């Protein structure tokens, strides 16, 4: 069987571009097909359209070497040995996973490919999509090829290293398809895991992310319980597992991002079609989705008790969905839900925001009327509440004493990530974390 030398990556979003660069870096000729002309132009200029550690330099190298070139369509692209589909799979308005972009991309691939090419689905999809959409479109076309599923599982901010080190899951429709896909992804890493079917590969991705969502939801349940009885959830969780190997409860906090916000819903929808109600999965997602409104209501109750007649000045640090590894990705950002919850409290004034990675232009494009500050202390100046909504390590460069000192009279920090837990006694009443309302006067 002919070796795979030329690959088309369909969709140059976060998953597609990092994969395309990793392949090109290893000597594969890669073409990227992306409908957004601005992304194509940036890619061909060697500039990524998002923040990712190490990507700038390597993208520039592979573009200059001619190993990667981007196009807006297949019209000027010669047939390839393999096609990797990495388009988005958002939830629709009805809350169910959309597959129209996967089907559209598959039709474009099938109309372009020669017989015998490999088609790999890498997008996160509901169970059965590889067989029922990708393979069906190929079969209806009358062409022949190999179809496999190889789910993406990289961590934003660390994608290039993880592509080379994490096991790649490969499940083909046939043994030959699995072999072909394993040969391709074996060029990226020495650890390729062959599984029995595309459905197995699809399920692995959904289960991995749903497990994390459930684990974090339990931590948030612990926080609610501790708030109710007036004890510190961080103490209960942290001290409870010291030297005790049978317990490893996560710390509470915001749970979102482009994967955890939607993948449990995709899993539930998939299984509902088989008559199975994923009850724990649904309950966990409910806990995590309602947390911004619950916690903001608690914080406002404390602030209003301290500043009964004063209009509140609100600041928020961390708009990206996470801070470690750092990213500028706003997809699935729970900070945006925190902002919605602040507005729902009747706050009509400006909300000050600071993020060490997300650019002011990106924030402006949200259209939320946010007041952008260039540093954390400036955003905190005179605030009644400073919400810390992601875990960027730069926040720890300021001491709790100094940061709390910037707040207005009776102001406090509501920290979803427990950055200053080790300094709890420094500013009594000025520092609150999830599951530790008692530190800021438990709301009545």
Automatic annotation (TrEMBL):
<keyword id="KW-0560">Oxidoreductase</keyword>
<dbReference type="InterPro" id="IPR014026">
    <property type="entry name" value="UDP-Glc/GDP-Man_DH_dimer"/>
</dbReference>
<keyword id="KW-0520">NAD</keyword>
<dbReference type="Pfam" id="PF00984">
    <property type="entry name" value="UDPG_MGDP_dh"/>
</dbReference>
<dbReference type="GO" id="GO:0051287">
    <property type="term" value="F:NAD binding"/>
</dbReference>
<dbReference type="InterPro" id="IPR017476">
    <property type="entry name" value="UDP-Glc/GDP-Man"/>
</dbReference>
<dbReference type="Pfam" id="PF03721">
    <property type="entry name" value="UDPG_MGDP_dh_N"/>
</dbReference>
<dbReference type="GO" id="GO:0016628">
    <property type="term" value="F:oxidoreductase activity, acting on the CH-CH group of donors, NAD or NADP as acceptor"/>
</dbReference>
<feature type="domain" description="UDP-glucose/GDP-mannose dehydrogenase C-terminal">
    <location>
        <begin position="315"/>
        <end position="422"/>
    </location>
</feature>
<dbReference type="Pfam" id="PF03720">
    <property type="entry name" value="UDPG_MGDP_dh_C"/>
</dbReference>
<dbReference type="GO" id="GO:0089714">
    <property type="term" value="F:UDP-N-acetyl-D-mannosamine dehydrogenase activity"/>
</dbReference>
<protein>
    <submittedName>
        <fullName>UDP-N-acetyl-D-mannosaminuronic acid dehydrogenase</fullName>
        <ecNumber>1.1.1.336</ecNumber>
    </submittedName>
</protein>
<comment type="similarity">
    <text>Belongs to the UDP-glucose/GDP-mannose dehydrogenase family.</text>
</comment>
<dbReference type="InterPro" id="IPR008927">
    <property type="entry name" value="6-PGluconate_DH-like_C_sf"/>
</dbReference>
<dbReference type="InterPro" id="IPR014027">
    <property type="entry name" value="UDP-Glc/GDP-Man_DH_C"/>
</dbReference>
<dbReference type="InterPro" id="IPR036291">
    <property type="entry name" value="NAD(P)-bd_dom_sf"/>
</dbReference>
<dbReference type="InterPro" id="IPR036220">
    <property type="entry name" value="UDP-Glc/GDP-Man_DH_C_sf"/>
</dbReference>
<dbReference type="InterPro" id="IPR028359">
    <property type="entry name" value="UDP_ManNAc/GlcNAc_DH"/>
</dbReference>
<dbReference type="InterPro" id="IPR001732">
    <property type="entry name" value="UDP-Glc/GDP-Man_DH_N"/>
</dbReference>
<dbReference type="GO" id="GO:0000271">
    <property type="term" value="P:polysaccharide biosynthetic process"/>
</dbReference>
């Amino acid at each position: 069987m002919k070796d795979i030398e030329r690959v088309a990556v369909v969709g140059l979003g976060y998953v597609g571009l990092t994969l395309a660069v990793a392949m090109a870096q290893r000597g594969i000729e890669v073409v990227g097909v992306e409908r957004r002309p601005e992304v194509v132009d940036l890619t061909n200029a060697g500039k990524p359209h998002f923040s990712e550690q190490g990507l700038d330099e390597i993208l520039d190298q592979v573009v200059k070497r001619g190993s990667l070139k981007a196009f807006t369509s297949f019209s000027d692209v010669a047939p390839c040995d393999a096609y990797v589909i990495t388009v988005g799979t958002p939830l629709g308005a009805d809350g169910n996973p959309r597959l129209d972009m996967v089907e559209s991309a598959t039709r474009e691939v099938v109309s372009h490919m020669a017989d015998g090419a490999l088609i790999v689905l890498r997008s996160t999809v509901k169970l059965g999509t590889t067989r029922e959409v990708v393979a069906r479109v190929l079969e209806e076309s009358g062409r022949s090829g190999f179809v496999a599923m190889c789910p993406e599982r990289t961590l934003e901010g660390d994608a290039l290293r993880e592509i080379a080190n994490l096991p790649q899951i490969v499940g083909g429709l046939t043994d030959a398809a699995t072999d072909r896909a394993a040969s391709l992804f074996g060029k990226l890493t020495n650890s390729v895991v062959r599984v029995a079917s595309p459905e197995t590969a699809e399920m692995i991705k959904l289960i991995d992310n749903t497990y994390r969502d459930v684990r974090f939801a339990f931590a948030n349940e612990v926080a609610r319980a501790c708030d109710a009885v007036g004890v510190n959830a961080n103490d209960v969780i942290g001290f409870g597992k010291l030297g005790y190997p049978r317990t490893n409860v996560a710390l509470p906090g915001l749970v979102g991002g482009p994967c955890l916000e939607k993948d449990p819903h995709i899993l539930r929808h998939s299984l509902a079609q088989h008559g199975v109600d994923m009850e724990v999965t649904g309950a966990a997602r409910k806990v995590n989705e309602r947390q911004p409104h619950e916690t903001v209501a608690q914080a406002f109750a404390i602030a209003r008790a301290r500043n009964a007649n004063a209009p509140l000045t609100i600041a928020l640090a961390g708009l990206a969905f996470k801070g470690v590894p750092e990213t500028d990705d706003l997809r699935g950002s729970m900070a945006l839900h925190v902002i919605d919850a602040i507005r729902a409290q009747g706050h009509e004034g400006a909300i000050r925001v600071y993020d060490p990675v997300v650019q002011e232009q990106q924030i402006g494009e949200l259209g939320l009327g946010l007041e952008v500050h260039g540093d954390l202390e400036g955003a905190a100046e005179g605030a009644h509440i400073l919400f810390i909504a992601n875990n960027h390590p730069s926040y720890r460069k300021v001491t709790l004493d100094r940061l709390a000192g910037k707040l207005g009279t009776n102001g406090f920090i509501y920290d979803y990530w427990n950055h200053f837990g080790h300094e709890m006694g420094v500013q009594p009443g000025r520092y609150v974390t999830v599951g530790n309302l008692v530190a800021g006067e438990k709301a009545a």
